Amino acid sequence: MSKTKRYLGVDFGDKRVGLATGDDEVCLATPLETLDGTQEDLLEVFIRTCRKEEIDHIVMGLPRGLDSQDTAQTVKVRNFAVKLESALGLPLTLQDEALTSVAARERLQERGQATDGGAIDREAAAIILQDYLGAL
Q1: Mapping DSSP to helix (H, G, I), strand (E, B) and coil, where does residue 69 land?
Q2: What's the whole-model pTM score?
Q3: How far apart (Å, rounded) are the C-alpha atoms in residues 72 and 56?
């Protein structure tokens, strides 16, 4: 029997970075934490988190413009993804994140939960990861 693969979902933003975890056994993404996207040691924080959570694969949301064109944020995400993949030596998948922040806000409001303090970012990361896990 093969080992259960652990995944880290990432909603990467300039101000905040939402993280979520999940695996290929249960196929359920769970919000984990929100990082300060401006911190200088962001790459090191990712490395520590991946080791602590025993991550095997990273799924990072890829923002695109409304007509699917690359934006300045798309370029930032791609650049960070390359650094992260190189530093960790883990597979990394870029997953379309269209409207995940809107969906995250709606989910939190429906559950009567706060939509500030990074909650939307964590929830968006879970949605990104859940979309990926659902396609496995």
Answers
A1: coil
A2: 0.94
A3: 28
For the four alpha carbons of 57, 123, 107 and 78, in that order, the dihedral sign comes to negative
Q: Which residues contact 130 (CB under 8 A, 6 or more apart)?
A: 9, 22, 28, 29
- Residues 16 and 117: their CA atoms lie apart, in Å, by 9
66: CATH = 3.30.420.140
- CA-based nearest residue to 7, from 26, 23, 30, 28: 23
* Residue found by looking up tokens 């995940």 in the block: 100
In order along the chain (136 residues), what is the average pLDDT of each group of 10 residues?
A: 90 95 95 94 95 97 89 95 95 92 90 88 96 93
What is the residue type of 56? D
Does the residue 1 lie in any domain?
Answer: no
State which residues form the domain around 52.
Answer: 6-134
Q: Cα–Cα distance between 50 and 35 in angstroms, integer?
A: 13
Rounded CA-CA distance 13/15 in Å is 6
